[in-house]
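Input chain follows. Return structure tokens only.
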Amino acid sequence: MPFLPAAPDSLHALAPEPQSRQLPDPVEAGPLRRIDAVVHLGFAVLLVASAVRYVMRHSPSEKLGVLALAAAACAIYALIAVLSRRPRPWAVYMYVLVALWSVLVVIAPSFAWGSFAVFFLCRMAFTGWTAYLTGGITTAATAVGLFRLGGGTDVALLLGPLAVGVVLTLIYDRIEHDAAEQRRLHAAVSLAQGQLAVTERRAGSIEERARVSREIHDTVTQGLASSLLHLEAAQRSWPGPATQDEIRSASVMLRQSLADARSLVHDLASPGLETAPLPDALLQAASHYLPGVRLYVTGEPRPVGGDTRHALLRVLQSAAANSALHAGAAHTTVTLGFLPDSVTLDVYDDGVGFDPALLSQPSEAGGYGLRAMRQRVEQLGGEFSVESSPGAGTVIAAKLPAGKLAAGANR
């Protein structure tokens, strides 16, 4: 005869066989132990009540054997309750308890109410057919005892416990199934969360590599390329008077490239350019590649956010380097515009131009510049465009949000 359903896996491993319960997860141990305590307390209360009822209804000559059997069953139950906390198999004690209890409730049906706790102890201790067999034996013995108590004439006392046992077995199975499904879903969610964390770390690593790649391209790579052009020009003019000028320009560019490389090591900062007023910093950045560049400012200059300022500097450095390396322009102008909620940068040269639709893929020979500029601008929620055609010069335009201002931001 069964008891109210208790949570599955509430007892530790009670048997060495595959059908016995395993030690519960430490996370579940607290709630499950509380459920175990309720079941054990219920058994104690029901056993005392049944013993009192039996003593009050039977003569002394009938009491001793039954009470001794009840005491033995109680001792075995207590032993199981204590030893089940340890990671050792105690299935043999469960079999002894089921046997003693079945005999007890058949010869003394007053103890039938304690079958509730014994039934669920069987279900908590075992799985599979072992659980069904031990629980079924307990239920059947209880039904027989109650049927005897009714004088063998009340069929309801025989069928009632069996029917209740079947119903609660189905309910308990459903609880076990739902608990197993919940554990499976929890494991699946944990696995998905782990995979998501790995994916996010990988995405962050890829983004960081792309960012560093843009920084190196816009500073060190462009500076080295310009230095190479000056040195090649010095070689062509050797030993003419222009040689020293070209070598001097190459030396300046190499020193700037070295400074840029050092700044990348120190959190990718830009010494000098990050502290000067924005128009001055832009003009200084462009002049390294285009000594004759002109800069115009429209609107009322005002502080802009650090990310926006950094992006403008890098875009202009890359655009000026491209103009010096590829455009062959006679004039290059830069326009910095301040709008109510944004800032614009336009770089125009009257060089040879190109077809933007025919950009080469990035390789060791180059091809990163315009893509890096576009990525840098669009990551800040800005807009980037290139207008050019062969023989008609090039306009590179960027529009970025003004951004949040840092303390001590410069214009």
